[in-house]
Amino acid sequence: MACSSAMADFSPIVKSGVAVPNQGTNFTNVNLAGVDSTFGTAFIGSFTINATNYSGLYRKVGNNINTIVDRGTVGPAGETINSIITTGDYDNGVIVFAANTTLGRTLYRYTPGNGLTALVRQGDTVAGSTSPVNTMYNRGVGGDATEFAFGSVLQDNSTAVYASAAGFPMRVVDDKTRSPIAETGNFVAFPEVSYRNGSTAFIGTGLDPDNAAATPEPAGVSSFARGIRSRSSPDAISRSPACLMTTCASMNSNVRA
User: Fold this and answer.
1) Would residue 58 count as lying in a domain?
2) Fewer Cβ neighbours under 10 Å: the N or C end of the chain?
3) In this predicted model, what pLDDT tens digit does every residue of 64-78 receive, in sequence order?
4) Strand, helix or coil at 236?
5) Distance CA 82, CA 47 (A)
6) What domain count does the chain have?
7) What count of other Cβ atoms lies within 10 Å of the Cβ of residue 148?
8) Cα separation of 35 and 32, whole Å?
């Protein structure tokens, strides 16, 4: 049997050792954030200045690397962005991301021509919760030009996922919500969150309520879509009355509309 293979040519878009714009040093590490047909490739670039580690958001179009935000960017309240925690999709130049700043962890939206908008800050108490936002998961944000979603560990160590409606975030699921997957009890954490076209998807973990020594395990991929009530997720209804929650696990749906 004769076999043939096609050779593909790969060329780096950006790599460590390339100069960081306006920082007088080189990237030590780079991670892809997203690709947009008009606005190029967005990436998280890490670098060190005076033994302090920083990271920022950059984009490359053609041969040019431009800054989206980094330590040279002044935020809406005068804060400095020290490092990037995570990003959502990159679409039409818009990107929602979380960052460590001089005013604490903050969720932002960057829009070409308009710059930064602070969406949620560490210490904010979001609708549906009594404890303020604390940390944000490193794969736990998403959004577009108008709406956004994120997961958080709150200051009282509870966990929740929030999604916005008309730009205002509200809690849609938390660690008091029963996981639809058998033998996993309530959700424990939400390590991954994504948002697109009005729907919020997340990966939740659960814990066997009958085994205190068990470790959290995946409890499926779930999603919320506004506009339809879920008859089988009453806890979610009490927090977000216009949501449909569905969970995918083993190719079965455990929640019906």
Assistant:
1) no
2) N
3) 999 999 999 999 999
4) helix
5) 11
6) 1
7) 25
8) 8
